[in-house]
Amino acid sequence: MVQKRVKPSSEPAAVVDGVEPTSDEGLASALPASLTIEVELPAPVHEQPEDEQAVALVEAGVDPAVVVAPVVTGEPGTTVIELDHDDLHAVAVTPEIEPEAVVEVPPLPVAEGVYSRRDMLDGVHHGPESAAMLTADRLIEPRRRSRPAPEGAWPALVYGATFHLVNLGDSRRVRERKQIDARIATAFEGGARFVPVLTRKGGVGKTTITTLLGMALASVRDDRVIAIDANPDRGTLSERVARQTRATVRDVVNRAASIQGFTDFSTLVSRDETRLDILASDTDPMLSEAFDENDYNVVADLAARYYSIVLTDCGTGIVHSVMRATLQRADSLVIVSGGSVDEARLASETLTWLEANGYGDLVRDAVVAINTATQGTNLVKLEEIEAHFASRVREIVRIPYDEQLAAGSVISWKDLRPLTRQAARELAALVAEGMPVRRGV
Hints:
The chain has helices spanning 24-30, 50-54, 117-121, 136-139, 153-161, 172-184, 206-220, 249-254, 262-266, 293-306, 321-329, 341-356, 360-364, 382-390, 403-406, 418-434; strands at 2-5, 36-39, 80-84, 89-93, 193-198, 225-229, 270-271, 276-279, 309-313, 334-338, 367-371, 395-399. By secondary structure, the chain is an alpha/beta fold. The two termini are 107 Å apart.
């Protein structure tokens, strides 16, 4: 509503309320002191600029009369317009969105021994230390660490005379002994290792070499070593040690289903002073030929459960089925040769047969043990025999003559000559070095 006030004018006025004024003064006197005229004007129309239209939230206008109260609706993440009825202006309001619940993932536990004291000092690990961090390097003063007492006559004398102040270390002989011990004690992973001892000729000392090899291994190693007599023609391996049982490979085959642990198996073997276990062959000539490939596999499977090294004293029948089963499991080979011409030739023919039947890799990695206690050794050139085998195998070892071995009876490891023990230990070290440390390598 617009109000307009009109003042008196000197111009002629129109008739008001049916009274015509006679003059200007009379007209002025006839008019009221003030005059109010009411005029209805159209509502102002707001034209929205183009820049505002480009960012407008709605295409149609909003009637303020319709909106009588603030309205807040919408899903989380949308914008709602509130219109104030009195001030006729719009306010954009974004509703508060409740934050989603954050799932906390707990950190992985720290296993004991996976961090060091340096990690603790560097701030990598915080918390209580594990027992694995209490190492000797950390707790013992370097200057107060005492070296072990030396071995050997002269180093031990100086060590004692100086009240343990002067330690010359082990003698040369002791150092060499410990080096061979370390080679023999090579640790193996992934199951038992099988080492057949074989040749095509009997009487060359194959059983004796098997016994010496087993004693040298068992006297040093911390695990178990067994020698199996797989000779189908009545072997004599069990006669090389003090026999403690009359059980044979046949008993192992018959009782295989009832053997539940090493205690059950140990009742069927004989053990000597070096902790070498020996499993005898059949002594009944009517049953010796019955020990075949399947029987050997039963015995070998049981032995592999409880022993780390399995030596097999093979017979002279190289084409026997037991030989095939033995070679299929072999990780290393020991070929025994005598010191005579025919014994050396038959040992070489054994290598040729193995190469022709697909065992060339075993031949190249084999070790030849030359038993110099056989007849005719003094008449041949052992150097030439060694040179021949050196072109075909990995290593050659001479086993010297020893009266105890020549007797063909029970072998006492401690009563052997030092040179004999040394040769047996060297053979054991070469065999251990030739076998894979991990299965499949």
